[in-house]
Amino acid sequence: MLTKPFLSHSQSSCALECGAKWWAIWHLGYQPVDIESMPQRVGTLGHAYALDDIVALWHDHTKAWNGDTFWRVAEERKWDIERMDIDVDDECARARWGASNLDTFLNLQRYHLIPDLYSRKPGGPLAEVRIDVPWARVHEVVPMQDLTAAVEVFSGIDGQPDLVTMEKGWGGPATITDYKFRQKPGLAEATSEVPDTQGAWYHTLLTAAGLRPAGGLEFRQISVYAGPMLTVDDFLEPGSPHVIERGLPSRMPKNVEPEVFDEAFRLLVQRTTQQRAAEGKRWSPTANDLAEARRHIEDLRHIRRVEERRFPLDPSVCREVVRDLVSHVDALLHQVRRGHRPARHLRSHPSSPCSRPFGCSVQGPCLASLGSHNFSAVLRSMSADGRLSPRAERIAEMPADMDFATLS
Ligand code: SF4
């Protein structure tokens, strides 16, 4: 017997963002081949390594990472190493670097990990476990019985918080942590000052699932740098872009540890001195060179590899946000049942998902259909050409677009 799916935050926020995108991805199952880019794969791997650390701590082991983590994740996500041109060593190194930055920052030994009493397979820590909550329990927190299409199509809501801890003891609030792995060192700009709707979703999900701590729930978003870090060899290799004309290391890259820069500076001074001597010239770094290098090393010590923002979760605001998210899915389901495809509302400002490159995963067929073809026809032809994953099988059943030109 087919069981009805649970509604996720991803689907609801997609519905809120753009009806046409929701229709293509969640209703028809559109999924472009190779949808996971390198930064997304590193993020997925970073989560896997971080979870290994948390589970190891829970079981009182000291180390959890082993060579299997990548291959387990690759199998789960169906990554084709050759076709997707995955540099396994590089992506693992980035993800491990990010996970170890996160581990140092979280310092979980100080906190209470919460036992998972809420997922389908309880046991272990409340970290990255899928929690399904049926409507009957969701309605106790947010009444949504009137959203008939959503209630009929789904069994309830689900979610998978990255980590939930009690930082101030069992009487304090439970902290829901969501972390993201970034490829650029400028974390302060990448970390939003306003909370993601995920916080409200998890608040409702966990409350409905039965987690009701005396101190309430709070939400924190963490951005972790998981990009490449320069090594001494990167500075020493012939023609290195990280060496300035004077033969000293450039102070431009910020993805370098202070100790690495210090050592690169020492070796480059040595190399440049020898090169100049071979040319019959005397050379040594100036007092200014040395002072600037020392200043730069000090600056590097203060670069943050992890940024955190905390947000209180007001239960009434969370209820309002979640009800609104589910309402959007409900409205779109009603629309589709009446035979209408949600229209594209293209946003034209340069940084919008419709305009910036890779801003929306449906951008290709959506924009390709702006001329003589309609959106449905483009999706249908992509499906017929085998350019979509097998998840797109429902495209064959989709209704033809309504012909508004024939309506008077
Ligand atoms: S490109 Fe814009 S209008 Fe088209 S599906 Fe994506 S978000 Fe919607």
What features would you describe in this structure?
This protein is 43% helix and 10% strand. By secondary structure, the protein is α+β, with helices and mostly antiparallel strands. It folds into three domains: 9-14 and 34-227 and 304-334, no CATH class; 232-301, no CATH class; 341-406, no CATH class. A five-stranded mixed β-sheet has the order 1-4-5-6-7. It has a two-stranded antiparallel ribbon with strand order 2-3. The model has no long low-confidence stretch (mean pLDDT 88).
Element-by-element helix/strand order: HHHHHEEHHEEEHHEHHHEHHH
* Domain unit count: 3
Bound molecules: iron/sulfur cluster
Strand content: 5-15%
Shape: globular
Biggest sheet, spatial arrangement of strands: 1-4-5-6-7
How would you summarize this macromolecular structure in one to three sentences?
This protein is of the alpha+beta class. The chain is built from 15 helices and 7 strands. The strands form 2 sheets. It has a 5-stranded mixed sheet. A two-stranded antiparallel ribbon has the order 2-3.
